[in-house]
Design goal:
By secondary structure, this protein is mainly α. It contains four helices and two strands, in the order ααβαβα. It has a two-stranded parallel sheet with strand order 1-2. The chain is globular and about 40 Å long.
């Protein structure tokens, strides 16, 4: 699960060594899990509904969060745990590591969610 902004996910910005997102990942920007005014996490009930809508509470799917370097991804993994999904992984190298390796694939375009 890519937690970066939608434009970066789609490959419209050149923030990292290469543009795009990891194949098979969905985009759920970190700002969607926070209250826009206070910056605090949304209530657990709202988080659960958001994650359920994105298919992230489906325990038959492995969920790994990633961002630019792992910090925002860790926060979203925490929010997923609060919503009941305690088996979430965090890709600590995130886009910095993935995009820096030309042998790893990246794709562009909208999120399938």
């Amino acid at each position: 699960m890519n937690v970066l902004d939608p434009a970066t996910y789609r490959g419209e910005t050149s923030t990292y060594a290469r543009r795009g997102h990891i194949p098979g990942s969905v985009n759920l920007p970190v700002f969607e899990v926070r209250n826009q005014e206070s910056g605090e996490l949304r209530p657990v009930e709202e988080l659960a509904a958001l994650f359920d809508e994105a298919g992230l509470l489906d325990t038959t799917k492995k969920v790994v969060t990633y961002c630019g370097g792992g910090i925002a991804a860790t926060g979203v993994a925490h929010a997923l745990a609060l919503a009941g999904r305690e088996d979430v992984g965090v890709y600590d190298g995130s886009m910095t590591a993935w995009a820096g390796n030309p042998d790893l694939p990246l794709v562009t375009g909208p999120s399938p969610r």
